[in-house]
Amino acid sequence: MQFNTRISAAHFQDDSDSWLLIDDQGRRYTSRFIITAMGILNAHTMPNIEGVHDFKGKAFHTARWPRDEAIDLSDKRVGIIGTGATGIQTIQEIVKNVGHLTVFQRTANWAAPLRNAKISAEEMDQIRADYPKIFEKCSKSYACFVHEADTRSLLDVPPEEREELWERLYALPGFAKWLCNFKDIGTNKEANRLVSDFFARKIRERVHDPDVAERLIPKDHGFGTRRLPLESGYFEAFNRPNVRLVDIREDPILRITETGIQTQSELHEFDIIIYATGFDAVTGSFSAVDFQGVNGLKLKDAWGDGIRTYLGLTVQGFPNMFMSMGPHQMFGNIPRSIEYAVGWITTFIGYCHERGITRVEATAKGMEEWTEHVHDCAKGLLANEVDSWMTGVNKNLAHKQTRSIARYNGPAPGYRRRCDEVAARGYSDFKMKREPAEEESSDAREGLQTPTLVEMRP
Ligand code: NA7
After folding, report:
1. pTM for the whole thing?
2. Environment class of residue 412 by beta-carbon count within 10 Å: exposed (0-12), middle (13-18) or buried (19+)?
């Protein structure tokens, strides 16, 4: 383990079938294989608002919440920009102890109760006893969660029965209200409109001021077409006298000033500004590293006109590089997706190790076919008609203004079956190179036979 180390460059070395990694201190490491495990929501983005660095009070992105000091908001005027999952969770928490909070909302998001609760010792014992069943369920479900969709089409079900299901789901914890809903709410516009109406009614019931409630109800996308934020008292936060909602579609932010946020109509003065403005999702972690494959091909150029992968695990032109939670992988229940990717990758590396294979690389054909398959799986999903980090959009970044297919949208069991088939074929879809016969092997090559990291101080 090498702690506190940020890799800034990773270059494939053609002559030794290995990777050279360079960290931000200039230290160099070589390795036969690399596995990227950098996360899909890692590179945070500040808003592209003029004057964002001019504010003289305290300001930070939620991903950089100060660790070295306790932030006491009890007598502070606080502004927060962003109402995604992070903004929603931040707002519901800080309203418990804040002087005054102003929430700047660009896009209202659907959100539904999390319903976390303490687990008794007996419940915990039961959950532990059920682990095999839970894992079995996750291995069969669409997105690796315990939840499974109601197999009926919403429009085939009488209105009272729909209501009954929705009320039941609303009372359950976690993603049940999203993932145990009727199977077609993510594909059929009318079904989606009806389920959205139900969740809009819930917001109206919970928010006292009807005008504020209307602003908190999304009008430009349907329920569940963006990753559903789960909340505990988010909507009630707006019933507090010291919380104000500013809809910046109506009253746009012009700039950040030394003292606060200037909208078209007003200067809002603050002691603290919190940016819950999201991430350069999925590919942002890759853009932060200078990845260079065969012949110096840069990964950012290889993906310049669209992400292309083979199995979401490898990229042609980047031999011996594997991705855990790279693009075109399942983003459902992420730990389960990681588990599968890690198993697949390490089995492949073990296979190479046993057979003296020093280089493996996806083919251009394999990558084109897989990418086409990923795009086919995305067809018909309403989620892909909506701007969100899941469709690769980040309006703070010039190169991420249009939608792309960044994740695998098909069912997880189908994804795993395809990857398992590749392994069962002895990875014959890959170009492979064996190490030279023993008499040819040099000391340097022997040093690279195992996938251990070799550090070379500069
Ligand atoms: P998200 O879901 O990308 O949300 C970012 C929020 O910040 C969203 O409301 C954006 O509005 C808003 N935003 C971003 N830039 C601006 C600017 N320049 N001006 C105003 N508002 C802005 O990120 P999160 O961190 O909340 O959640 C990411 C995932 O982490 C989440 O889905 C879970 O899976 C865990 P917009 O919608 O773009 O209009």
Report:
1. 0.93
2. buried
